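Extended Data, panel c. Modelled sequence:
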Amino acid sequence: MDNQPTDSSIPSYDYIIAGAGCAGLSVLHQILQAPTLQDKKILVIDHNLEKSNDRTWCFWETETSSFEHLVKNSWDKISILAPSFQKELTTAPFTYKMIQGLDYYQFIMENAKQFKNVSWLQAKVLQIESSTNGAIVQYEGGQVYASKVFTSILPFQMHDLLSAQKYSLPHPNIQPFLWQHFKGKVVRFEKSVFKPNIARLMDFNVPQKEATAFMYLLPLNEKEALVEYTLFSETILANTEYDEVIAAYLSKNYPDQSFEIINEEKGAIPMTQFDFESPSENIYAIGALGAAIKASTGYAFQFIQQQSKQIVHQLVRNKDFSTKVHTSRHQFYDAVLLYILQHRKMQGAIIFKKIFEKNEAATVFKFLSNTSTFWEDIQIMRSLPTNIFLPAALHVLFRR
């Protein structure tokens, strides 16, 4: 191991990964792909290592994914719907892809079991603090040491918060801040009702709840689809409110059709540029904690992959660490949009309608994935009303 703790009684590792969600397992996977790091002693610690199909990740790319064998479905067309508006767009050269959480978890965990140097510990993490030449992770039942700790565990317990019917900001000084919260159901109809080659990316013809709200409908085939009610707001809905909207949506769009619910998922993603975790020596924040999520949309999967590869690249070359994955330019755009949504300067439905109405899907995808050129950014900006976005941009700029 690279370093040893001053107290030899504490179990020691080269790396500890605190949190076995998408971010933690992605870092583990990338470490095990690097020949010079494969023999490092690694501990993965999480309060629950019994995984379920609790998430669905969607992303777009122009090439074959390194996780292509896990792709549940893909689409080459998307649709955007709003009151008095409907548009279908081809995604070329991009393909829109879906990976289910359980497939991803199981693939990485099964692969990691081939490495005897990887250990697993199911326990609740209580505290992580820097120590001599490393960091100590305290958990219910003991403590462990590593030269480097990668953590995705938020300072407020997301699973505890989600058990409540409503909650608001985790801290009053976090601004701007919205939750992207959702509940989705995989439904199976008795008859063919879906167009399997078109992903309904946003349908704003749903109750807005004084927020930005849309239905996300991803067909898996002609009879099955993931139907997910998604909102950007400061507070979370009661569980039954999601159910009621989804039920009404299915009844309205597919009247007199029988279906069964195959699976459900629910979650909340922080949409903010607030640094939840102050940098500490030998402790590195990843995932949502490490600002991998795109603040204005909640897209995470590809940014987490980028962050994980960047971390391993730095480990291999023993470089100074940076987990930042978003450019300053795109962070500024995100801050402006968050400000407008949080202060209700303009309805989110109208913003996204204008963006997709006046641009090709590929241009929008590049913008949302932080790969757009400055000229493409200008194209997007021209889609939006200057009298609203310019004052918001100036406010964000001078606030900084």
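The first strand starts at residue 12 and ends at 18. This feature is highlighted in the accompanying rendering.
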